[in-house]
Amino acid sequence: MNSNTTQWLCAFIGCVFVAMRLAFIVDVQQPDAAPSVEQEFFDAIREGKTDKVNELLRQRPALLKARVKNGASPVLYAVYAKHPEIAESFIARGVEPNIFEAAITGRIERVRALLKQDPPLVKAYSPDGWTALHLNWGRLDIVNLLLDNGAEINAQSRNRLVATPLQGAVVTRRIELARLLIKRGANVNCKGEGGGSPLHEAAFSGQLDFAELLLAQGANINAKDDNGKTPLGAALEYKRDEIAAFLRKHGGEE
Predict the structure, then answer these.
(1) pTM as predicted
(2) CA 100 → CA 18, 22, 152, 197, distances in Å?
(3) pLDDT tens digit string along 168-195?
């Protein structure tokens, strides 16, 4: 993914999923305008207005089955918007989490049960383009479970971000997740939208610890994105002086 996309994601999600939090890397879209009650429902979720969400559900329980334009469910949308308590309230109302919802809400036993019932789910994509591995939300136990069951560690999201789980780990500043993914075979030179590598992401966001990790594991310090920009170029563009100095010291070029 390119630097503009990453900046938008970081602003929307907040941290470290980064807050995709997708960030990770998450691609949230506005719901369809019609019917207006659905728009109101998803607006209330996004804004964290629990009372309004509950009021709308009392009036129309079927809203739990509504979807935003990109196909994300209310549970996923609530977590993307940094309101996991609202997601939990939906599950308490009777939503049975699918594998994506189970992964993102940390329900490892539910993930395990679903994989036992339907093993191909481990490689399935959510309507908004993520695998369950992308949606691990930093739960290393769920990551290991999914990988042990055949998850594609370098799977690219089927949305405009074209992100791998490792890229999501960098965007969401989850270094322990990145270490685990690399240990289990993640490609440190994968590319996302715009041709950016994980090292581009680390440079853009000024994450020195990630840059050190990625270089130690074979990342190409002078990889170029689709605009010909190297990680050092990204660091300089966004005035990340410390990481720019580090990259120069290790042979980085503009």
Answers:
(1) 0.86
(2) 19, 13, 15, 25
(3) 999 999 999 999 999 999 999 999 989 9
